[in-house]
Amino acid sequence: MNIQFHIDYQTYYGQDLVLNVITGRHNGAAETSQYRMRTADGYHWEVEVKKDAKPGTQIDYFYSILRGDNEERREWGVTNHRLDFDTERSLNYRVYDHWSDIPDNAFLYASAITDCVVGKKLMKAKLNNYNKAVTLKVRAPQLGDADELYLVGAEPALGAWNVKKALKMVQHNINEWSLTLDGTKLAGNQIEVKFFIKRNDSNENIVWEYSDNRTLTLPTMDEGDVVVYELAEASFPLPAVRVAGTLVPVFSLRSQTSFGIGDFGDLKKMVDWVSMTNQRALQILPINDTTITHTWTDSYPYSCISIFALHPQYADLTALPALKDKKQQEKFETLRKELNALPQIDYERVNDAKTEYLRLLFEQEGAKVLESTAFKTFFAETESWLVPYAQYSYMRDKFGTADFSRWADHKQWDEADRKALSNPKDKAYKEVAFFYYVQFVLSTQLKAVHEYAQAHKIILKGDIPIGVNRYGCDVWTEPRYFNLNGQAGAPPDDFSVNGQNWGFPTYNWDEMIKDGCQWWVNRFQNMARYFDAYRIDHVLGFFRIWEIPVHSVHGLLGQFSPSLGMSREEIEGYGLHWQEELFTEPFIADWVLDRIFREHADEVRQKYVEHVWGDRYKMRPEYDTQRKVEKAFAGKNSDVDIWLRDGLYALISNVLFVRDHKDANRFHPRICVQFDFIYESLYDSDKAVFNKLYNDYYYRRNNQFWYQEAMKKLPKLVNATRMLVCAEDLGMVPDSVAWVMNELRILSLEIQSMPKDPKVRFGHLGENPYRSVSTISTHDMATLRQWWDEDWARTQDYFNSMLHRGGPAPHPLPGWLARDVVSRHLTSPSMLCILGIQDWMSIDEELRLADPDAERINVPANPKHYWRYRMHVSIEDLMKNKAFNEQITDLLYQAGR
Fold first, then answer.
1. CA within 20 to 30 Å of 265's CA: 102, 466, 635, 797, which one?
2. Which residues cross the membrane (predicted)?
3. What range defines the domain where residue 34 resides?
């Protein structure tokens, strides 16, 4: 069989167009056969492929542009072209395609919409025996689950414009419909057609495509010819998809069968509640393993030890076989009830108990499970990461520390160990097999939740943290991808005046880009096993990360990495006379010490600083970094000690410029230094010059550079799966972030109390972009009820200007007013409106917690916050709360979601 492929695409000198026929997949990546195309004018391209294809089969393919042997660009990779061989007598195919760029409505091709909201199943085209055939293909992503696509045209064979005689299309690819016509029944060389949607199989309820009639010119055809036309996407005058949902961490879920913490069984129950209330999305926080110390400090879900491994605490023990030892079973049941009755999570007791239970169950059931076909399939699919993770976990527990630099003979993963660790007969395998078993259990349970959510048309949305723990398995296994001399964090913002220091190592992007960001691609593709949408935590990290030196505690001495540091000459070019020691060393003068330490200033002069000249001092060597100060004050918890420690931190960060981490001859203006003493010491004229330099640096200088950095990474990741891509784009956001997110069709995060427009105090919900997620609060923020009472003047302004109500704002927030706030968010244009479970409950005064402060999930200013918030109501009781559930369904109906 001969297949001629034709496509029009304007190329430039040195570029070649290539047809890539997909032959299989390996580790999530497409394996292809490539065919270079030919052209006479640089626009009309064609290639002929000989293929032995049987009727009833199909091929997928895409086009790309090469310069020499290097790929410069390829089509949007979420959906490929598909060619069905549905004609039994076919000898020659002529295919006329369009180049596929990422469309404005790319979100409609995401599995969140196609597999969850719509839920249509693909069908194979029926075989025909036409002597001559014309196949028409068209993408129509707006169709709902009860919609069918039809074609009608001028000719009798096309229905003669009678909708009752229209021809039904078959959805053979994601959002693409196909129909093969008998070419011998088409008169002349032109046909005129139009598409329409038939809703609920009714000839009265149809929607015509929003365009003129389509006219197609057919070529001369011989016996055995098939002509395939890929037509421009069909557009219909239909309302946009708008979905409501709930955000709740898995650990926060509570059911009657929980073991003191939410688990994957509870997550399935939460899907039931979301579905019952006519919501369509359920968002959770990260669920990866975070076990470093086996203490409550591991409760931080954004500090994973593995980007693949799931946290053992989420195992649903009720879905596993019971322990045969009745005394043990009774002991655990008693403990389960005790832990489940607690108002908050006791992280250590819960995890100790669950680990003990799983080890007993492994002794009882493990051998049988590890011999099963299901486990062997799982092991084959995950072996690349599972084996190192299991050995890491075994070594962590064996040596009593996650600091692998202290592990004898195992300071780094050795690929040579893989063979023994993968052989069930080997001692090494037996030592780590428990960890294989637990991950198999967790993966199986979470996949079941995912399938359950899809069956109920619920979008399960996950969360991808920007960082990993510096003592985690990923760093141990592939250290080349990380910079261990830096700490990732965030510059000062509304959450933390000193910035946030997450402690994660920063990424060695140069190394990651060498292999096409495969580490990230693998991570995203693994997420797609369990989710249909995801949130990119701190998407700004793909443009630049706030990198803090390892000797710092706070984030003020950080700098954006990568970024274009300033030379001495550039700084002087602004009119600021360069004084390196004055600008880059802590500015410590008598008046500064008196202002910070007051009655303790002399104590600081004598113990922590040493005199240099005049009224100037410098830090003593034993206290000249924040980490040294932190160590000196370890265990000292009096108010005076904490005040002295924090004052010394402030002294050390009191600099005007920070030296570049890579190039000692380049400098960065210190973030928020306008609030510090070194800035106060400048002449007014120098302050004005510095402010101009500062604003140019932070808001203009790096924009194009950061755009280019993000475009090296994010397109590969966005195209790696069909999950719906959402991003947390809060904080100090450069203009380039919006450029990239618009280009890649990534949904932004919109919070009314944190508007992106610096000119307004509160965002106008009606101005939310459609491609966005609207919410009231995040896990890092005060809930709606907390926020309402934090700052009464701000609340009063919101009450009058946003809610358009007169008089004093009521405190605490009444349920009827919370309902008004929720309703306004639901009616925003945002595609997704996802509210925290606490904010949903705020509308019902009988249901919500009495103490709003008990609703808080995280306090970002506290790096050692205990993540232990738990719903005070079981999911079973929530399901029975008819009045509350009817309020939600009523709000969604009124909002058109």
1. 466
2. none
3. 2-231
Question: At CA 537, angle to CA 278 and CA 724, rounded to 5?
Answer: 45
Q: In the listed set 183, 212, 231, which residue is the last one of a domain according to the structure?
A: 231
Please list, in sequence order, all residues whose beta carbon lies within 8 angstroms of the beta carbon of residue 484, skipping any fewer than 6 positions away.
470, 475, 505, 550
613 backbone dihedrals φ, ψ, rounded to 5°: -165, 150
Sign of the CA dihedral running 356, 361, 364, 368? negative
Tell me: the pLDDT tens digits for 41-90? 999 999 999 988 899 999 999 999 999 989 999 999 888 999 999 998 88
Domain total in the chain: 2
Distance of alpha carbon 476 from alpha carbon 306, whole angstroms:
10
How far is 194 from 35, CA to CA, in rounded Å?
34
With tokens 């265990």, the residue in question is 635
Q: Collect contacts of 877-881 with beta carbons under 8 A, ≥24 apart.
A: 878/273, 879/269, 879/272, 879/273, 879/276, 881/844, 881/847
How far apart CA 288 and CA 464 sit, in angstroms, is 9
Residue 433 within a domain: no
Residue 834 belongs to some domain of the structure:
no
Q: What are phi and psi of 244, to 5 degrees?
A: -110, 155
Residue at a domain's end among 670, 700, 730: 700
Residue 421 in any domain: the answer is no
Contact residues for 701 (Cβ-Cβ < 8 A; gap 6+): 564
**Separation CA 160–CA 166 (nearest Å):** 8
Residue at 514 is within a domain: no
Strand positions, DSSP E, 127-200: 133-139, 147-153, 167-168, 170-173, 176-182, 190-199
For the stretch 435-468, pLDDT in tens is: 999 999 999 999 999 999 999 999 999 999 999 9
C-beta separation of 277 from 892 below 8 A: yes
Q: Starting from the edge strand earliest in sequence, which strands make up the sheet with 748-751, in order? A: 724-727, 533-536, 459-464, 281-283, 243-247, 832-836, 772-775, 748-751
Residue 811: how many CB atoms within 10 A of its CB? 11
pTM higher than the cut 0.85:
yes
CB proximity list for 480: less than 8 A, separation 6 or greater: 508, 511
**CATH code at 212?**
2.60.40.10
My answer on whether omega of the bond before 812 falls inside 30° of 0, hence cis, is: yes
DSSP letters for 63-84: EEEEETTEEEEE--SSS-EEEE
Extended strands (E) in 753-798? 772-775
What is the CB-side half-sphere exposure of residue 551 using CA atoms within 13 A?
9
